[in-house]
Amino acid sequence: MLSLQFGAAIATELFDEVGSAGASALRLGLAAVVLLFWARPDVRSWSASHRRSVVLLGLSMAVMNYAFYEAVSRIPLGAAITIEFLGPLGLAVALSRRWRELVFVALALAGVAVLGFGQQGSVEGSLDPVGVAAALVAAVFWACYILTGSRLATTDPGIGSLAGACTVAAIVVVPIGIASSGTDLLDVRVLVLGLGMAVLASVVPYSFELRALERMAKRTFSILVALEPAIGAMVGAVLLDQHLGAVSLLGVVLVVAAGIGATATAPADQTPLLPESA
Question: Structure pTM?
Answer without folding.
Answer: 0.79
